[in-house]
Write a structure and sequence with these properties.
This protein has about 260 residues and is mainly β. About 10% of the residues lie in helices and about 55% in strands. The longest helix is centred in the first third of the chain and has 12 residues, at about 25-40. The radius of gyration is 20 Å and the shape is globular.
Length: about 260
């Protein structure tokens, strides 16, 4: 079944749900085989976004594995696209999903800089006849520690303690030209503390300075490899709603 989501830029986000299939016993190999099957008319291409492999366990208890790779049609100088193949282990069978978009640096579908429709799609995934397995305690255990996200102009830091407390700090830089040869740099810093709880794939943040308005977001914890599986990096993704603009945004954090 093909799902087509048209975003505001006009880009069409293609997500395909394939029939259930037998598990080969190794999720990584299953994901590689699915990618080869779905994108057999394409060849690997160098992209501005690195190829990667991702593995994790959902809040409902199913294991999953994702292959991401820059691709292009064989036999010509065609536009570089970006494809992914996702498999989830449901007992002895596999759920299989694939998608294709522009390069993530310019895509409004599976983008790094613009919009990414995958997180909300992932959080909504449910499989018929799958008996959900409680993961709240395991997710809380894996969340414990220090998580940092940093770009050229912004940084964000969360510390999650095992007793249900958190501390957060973030900073952003803005630049203003004061003359032809002078640039003023302004750094905005924000700090906050509070309590958190996990319920399924949702996180509830209760800030000490605003206890009457708990903040609800979505989370997932994954491991990502960009070197073919030789090394893996622990990643925390947090989807929240901006208190300024009201828009949803997702930030990825590296565990320290």
């Amino acid at each position: 079944m093909l799902l087509m989501i048209v975003v505001q830029t006009g880009e069409k986000c293609n997500i395909t749900l394939w029939p259930m299939r037998a598990s080969g016993g190794n999720l990584q190999n299953d994901a590689i085989n699915l990618f080869s099957e779905v994108f057999k008319s394409f060849v690997p291409k160098q992209s501005s976004t690195s190829q990667s492999m991702i593995k994790g366990v959902s809040s409902r208890g199913w294991e999953y594995f994702i292959i991401k790779q820059g691709i292009g049609l064989a036999g010509g100088d065609y536009q570089t696209m970006f494809g992914f193949a996702f498999v989830a282990k449901l007992g002895n069978v596999l759920a299989a999903i694939s998608g294709i978009s522009k390069d993530p640096l310019v895509s409004s579908c599976f983008g790094l800089m613009l919009t990414d429709v995958w997180p909300k799609f992932f959080y909504s995934l449910q499989f018929k006849n799958w008996q959900s397995q409680e993961q709240d305690k395991e997710i809380t255990k894996r969340m414990t520690g220090v998580w940092i996200s940093a770009t050229a102009t912004a940084g964000d830091r969360f510390v999650f303690a095992p007793n249900g407390r958190f501390a957060g700090a973030s900073a952003a830089q803005r630049y203003y030209a004061t003359s032809t040869n002078e640039l003023l740099t302004v750094t905005d810093a924000y700090f906050g503390d509070g309590a958190y709880s996990i319920k399924g794939n949702q996180i509830i943040l209760v800030h000490d300075n605003n206890k009457g308005n708990p903040e609800t977001g979505f989370i997932r914890i994954e491991q990502e490899s960009k070197d073919g599986g030789r090394t893996w990096l622990e990643k925390l993704y947090l989807l929240r709603k901006s208190v300024v603009a009201g828009a949803e945004y997702e930030v990825g954090y590296d565990k320290q």
